[in-house]
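Dear colleagues,

For the upcoming journal club I promised to circulate an example of a predicted protein-ligand complex. I picked one with iron/sulfur cluster because it came up in last month's discussion. The inputs are reproduced below in full, followed by the predicted structure.
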Amino acid sequence: MPTSLLTAGSRAIQAGADIEFQDGNLRPLDLEHSDTVAVSLVGAPYIPEIRKQIGGRHRLILGGQVLNGLVQKWTEKGVAIDGRVLALQHESTQQFVRLFGMHAYNGNDDSEFAHALGIRPGDLPDVFHTSLIPAFEKLDDGVLRAYLSMEFSFFLSQGCKKDCSFCAAVRTSRDTAGVLRKVGEQYRHMNDGINDKLPNVVEQDLRWLTENAESFNLQSLTLYLSNLDLFQTPSKLEQFADIVLALKKAYPGFQFRMRGLCTTESFVGACKDEPAVVRKMVDAGLYMLGFGIDGDPHAEDVKASIHKKFNTSENCLNAIRLSREHGITPETLMVFGHEEDTQQTMTGAIRFAADMQDAYGAVPRPHLSKALIPGNDGWRDPLNAELVEMRLNNQDLFYNDDFTCRASSITHPDPLRRAQVNEAYEKMTRLERATTLPLFPREPADPELTALHEYLNTGKYDR
Ligand code: SF4
């Protein structure tokens, strides 16, 4: 289910736009009768698909977190006036324009989004107060049934207070001028005794989905919660658990299965300080947690280099052990092969994943880190300007930045290093029950190899 696209569409419908949804994964796209096409980009590897699948015939609106990395924002300290130092805000859309052209609109910017659709920005409801029901109602039964029959993402919160350098999510980060921009987790609106006059959009959406699933004779919903760190804000998560538990009571026999991502730190903290919240989430249907281990838990230098020192080896072990004790299947989410990783630390990461599998049945979920993707620290680093330029000049290179893709001459120019990280990645993906199907890269200097790799990649999806 393209949840972010449905969120944007629902806001636009409520502001008066005439919207229709199409999903190229389910049916061939039919764009003949649309003057404007909006696409949600799930990540940088999808950038080249825009040109290939949509072409240049339509007014184009693009959304998705990756675009924020292509619109460079920075703050500069200005001159002191009357003792006050003014902060000057700058923005450059140059990268966005080079990739998508002068006539594409940045859908993440409300005024551009509204302008492209001919509606007033002020009429767009706040994202966190938006129900997706107006968009769900536009889906035909076949499509809705397909979405509800499989796991789908449920928009519950956005944002992470941590600042892991490789991560391109909405998170705390430093801009190109080095100024810290703090981000916290923000939930969609749920009634909290303070703002109860506003609609409880989380409850409304989940109830609507439950009723529609029942009408299709489905006995359960499987949700991938959007939270980047599920136990970062336990008080809000508890409100959500209460909503799910109340729905389970209202619809006897109906089940919710939920999984999500979590830092080891917040889960260990919640088990210690908020055990009731953990228990409620398990009762509500939480069955799996992906812990961002992201390398050898004992490699202190590597962790410091990726801003992940909070991921202590103790937390890594305890989070996996505690999740199993609560009946939650742990996943060792392993983004590794960072620039500072050595053969030894990569071997340590593989050993940890294997040990956790043996001891606690933890499911390995390996990813090979890439130094720069729009929105992460590497992309913003002026030392990488040439590498950024390569991608802006040849969009196909973005395929190679996929974290499930093997290392290539584009992402790892040194052949020895490339061989080392590929060997480690291969070993990790061969662990029993490992979820990742590694993609093969495009090599611009070798069109035949690229064609073979494209063929081998067909049908591979990340978990
Ligand atoms: S904790 Fe996870 S979501 Fe948050 S910054 Fe780190 S990798 Fe990104």
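Two points we might discuss: The pocket of iron/sulfur cluster is lined by residues 160, 162-164, 167, 169, 171, 228-229, 263, 292 (CB under 6 Å). Residues 3-125 form one domain.

See you all on Thursday,
B. R.
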